[in-house]
Amino acid sequence: MAASRLSLNFPSRRPLSDSFRHFLVIPTILAFLTTIFIFHYISSTSTLVIHLHNNHHRLHVNPKEVVTKPLRPIPNKPIIQISLPKRTRSSVIEIHISNHSIQLGNGSEGTTLKSSIIGSIEPKSPPEPESPPSPVPSNPTTTTTTDDDDVFHNRETFFENYNEMNKSFKIFVYPTPKSHPFANVLLPVSSDPGGNYASESFFKKSLAKSHFLTTNPSDADFFFLPFSIATMRHDRRIGVGGLQNFVRDYVVNVSKEYPYWNRSGGADHFYVACHSIGKIAMDKAVEVRVNAVQVVCSSNYFVSGYVAHKDVSLPQIWPRQGDPPKVEPSKRKRLAFFAGAINSPARIQLVEVWKNDSDIFAHHGRLKTPYATELLRSKYCLHAKGYEVNTARIGDALYYGCVPVILADYYDLPFTDILNWKSFSVVVATVDIPLLKNILNEVGFDEYLRLQKNVLKVRRHFQWHGVSAEYDAMMLFTWFCMSCGSEEVL
Ligand SMILES: *[C@@H]1O[C@H](CO)[C@@H](O)[C@H](O)[C@H]1NC(C)=O
Ligand SMILES: *[C@@H]1O[C@H](CO)[C@@H](O)[C@H](O)[C@H]1NC(C)=O
Ligand SMILES: *[C@@H]1O[C@H](CO)[C@@H](O)[C@H](O)[C@H]1NC(C)=O
Ligand SMILES: *[C@@H]1O[C@H](CO)[C@@H](O)[C@H](O)[C@H]1NC(C)=O
Ligand SMILES: *[C@@H]1O[C@H](CO)[C@@H](O)[C@H](O)[C@H]1NC(C)=O
Ligand SMILES: *[C@@H]1O[C@H](CO)[C@@H](O)[C@H](O)[C@H]1NC(C)=O
């Protein structure tokens, strides 16, 4: 981003450390609001609209408004709307509250939530008479409004918050002596992180070098629990069977040695995990799951364990060096590309429907050609969920300048509060896989060019840099975290 933009003077707000105290009450308030919200939903309407306000970036619900009239979009400032179809007898959607999380349905693939989650939803019930016409078009692919051109929902607010965070946000990492028997699990790795779950190690390395660190815990806004799930998994002394005890013991140790865990019940603490096994690792330390901020790759808001708006979605990134080759959009002859293991209903359907197609290449297993070549010669690259909603394919697609198509229902997409996914991706519900070719063809070439241009703009937010570079994934996360602590949240 141009340096000049950053030197603009933004009005300063109250000090961050003050506002972070408000963070501690958020779980309670959220639970309360969630309750009202759900009661309201069940009693009076069949349409659930979660509205994120541009200026606040967080779930923004005014309790008075909720009980007196239906939620409706604030004119011209929609970011995300989630509308559920009418509840019918055959619907599998059910809503209940479980440890501050909302579960919709039973988690099986392809439930009745038909519309895609971001952008392309048209409410099934008629709009409220008093509400203005929905500013979100039913077909996002034909949108050409100014807002959608920007990869940020609100650029000005983003940079204002970013600059404030950069000045004052502080993180304390619980220290580990090099002689600790589990130093390998608790300290950042010295080698270059590799593989599918590299994001976890990159995060720790970046954090260790970042200017956000403080050695004085009384200055800290947030506290980092430095255990690495990926390393524990491969440590023979721990393994998958020992994860839960290790996490429980570590948290007990930290809560005895320091006053900070007990002070907040863990609400100003966070950990990072890219492997989905992280989900069960907290089973014997329930407070970590319920109160702490979980920075995880498997950010599926349909399963308990991940709490949207508390937890943070970390992009799964395959590490790559240097700049990718450039391929002009017009030279990308193939419409869409997918390759991978067929381990989910979405992928089974994808390959079943499109295996013989000449425009959409959906391949089971290993390719004969290099993976990069296929990403470079395709306009759209399909991110179809596997065992989990997350895969490294979004990062792969962006790196090679290919527009990602998200086929992963209930994926809480990384940085979705900051980045306007509609501007650089196409989100398609998995039930619409048979319509994929129509959907992509309808986008049109001009719109494709716009998406592709934005892909090149956002891709640096989906890369890890040895030392935390300006605006890389680590920075955006901390920005994100800062905004959860802001008093503007509620
Ligand atoms: C909710 O939290 C309680 C303890 O606070 C725990 O016993 C229970 O198993 C949790 N439920 C779920 C679904 O995680
Ligand atoms: C979830 O819903 C699907 C579709 O209605 C059903 O086939 C499946 O048995 C349900 N699973 C559970 C665990 O209830
Ligand atoms: C953030 O802070 C660091 C260290 O104080 C500084 O080097 C960097 O230029 C700042 N970045 C921005 C965008 O203000
Ligand atoms: C917790 O502390 C005990 C006693 O000092 C130690 O033996 C154990 O290794 C620690 N566990 C973890 C996970 O740090
Ligand atoms: C925090 O609470 C736990 C459990 O109640 C207790 O064992 C521990 O000593 C407390 N820590 C501090 C620093 O007081
Ligand atoms: C794909 O081609 C095979 C062999 O020609 C054929 O048996 C199959 O029915 C085709 N599948 C689809 C979905 O068109």
Automatic annotation (TrEMBL):
Compositionally biased region (Pro residues): 124-138
Region (Disordered): 104-151
GO CC list: Golgi membrane
Cell location: Golgi apparatus membrane
Biased amino acid composition, Polar residues: 104-114
First-listed, main subcellular location of the protein, grouped into a coarse class: Golgi
Keywords, in A-Z order: Glycosyltransferase, Golgi apparatus, Membrane, Signal-anchor, Transferase, Transmembrane, Transmembrane helix
Origin superkingdom: Eukaryota
Statement: the UniProt record of this protein carries the keyword Cell inner membrane: no
InterPro entries (alphabetical): Exostosin (IPR004263), Exostosin_GT47 (IPR040911)
Gene Ontology MF terms: glycosyltransferase activity
Membrane-protein topology: Single-pass type II membrane protein
Segments crossing the lipid bilayer: 20-42
Domain called Exostosin GT47: residue spans: 165-442
Transmembrane helix among keywords: yes
Family named by the database record: Belongs to the glycosyltransferase 47 family.
Protein's name according to its UniProt entry: Exostosin GT47 domain-containing protein
Species annotation: Camellia sinensis var. sinensis (China tea)
Taxonomic lineage of the native organism: Eukaryota, Viridiplantae, Streptophyta, Embryophyta, Tracheophyta
